[in-house]
Amino acid sequence: MINIENVDHVGIRVTDAQRALSFYKILGFELHKEVEFDSVVIVKNPHDVEINFIVNGADLTSGKNILMDVPEKHPGYTHLALRVDSIIETLKTLKENNITPSQGPVTFGNDGHVSVFIRDPDRNVIELRARLEDESKIPGLVFYDPAA
Fold first, then answer.
1. pLDDT at 109 over 90
2. pLDDT (mean) for 28-41
3. How does residue 67 score in pLDDT terms, banded at 50, 70 and 90?
4. Are strands 50-55 and 113-119 parallel, antiparallel or unpaired?
5. Where in the chain is the domain with CATH 3.10.180.10?
6. Separation CA 135–CA 148 (nearest Å)
7. Which residues, listed in sequence order, are joined to residue 103 by a DSSP beta bridge?
8. Residue 31 pLDDT > 90
9. Which fold has domain 1-58?
């Protein structure tokens, strides 16, 4: 058995590093390093969460995410889930930055969590997940529908 201690980083293929960086700055990420020997840009947030932008993406699907936006279900990573401290504050920040959720806010029933799903400029899915707050203060909260 390999003793995995933690997730080290996530690599996300993007078509434009500056466009991706502008978007992920809203989520609290800042440029950490541009790799000189490869098309990789490393960003981190204040909690040391690391994302590597792999800057060699080509949009061959007319803006569709092949894992999420087509009827056929291809194998692969479908989304990145990031823990946030408040879904209410997250929704406010998304609205202030003209980011429309692709789904949510949603509750999953008795697991005590609520999530909102967004897309980055390359249509990669990001789940922003928090502990359930006062349901009456979460605008538009519905039960999660996997078909949505």
1. no
2. 95
3. low
4. unpaired
5. 79-148
6. 21
7. 117
8. yes
9. 3.30.720
Task: Decide the pairing of beta strands 113-119 and 125-131.
Answer: antiparallel
Rounded CA-CA distance 119/26 in Å is 13
CA distance readout (Å), 91 to 40, 51, 55, 64, 133? 30, 22, 28, 24, 13
- Domain covering 79-148 in this structure, CATH number: 3.10.180.10
Yes or no: say if 145 and 107 are a contact pair by the CB < 8 Å rule: no
Domain with CATH 3.30.720.110 in the chain: 1-58
Cβ proximity of 91 and 139 under 8 Å: yes
Residue with tokens 């840009």: 41
> Beta strands 50-55 and 80-83: pairing type?
unpaired
- pLDDT at 110 (0 to 100): 72
pLDDT tens digits, residue range 69-86?
777 776 778 889 999 999
Q: Alpha-carbon distance 131 to 8, whole Å?
A: 23
Lookup: tokens for 20: 């991706």
Q: What per-residue confidence (pLDDT) applies to 72?
A: 75
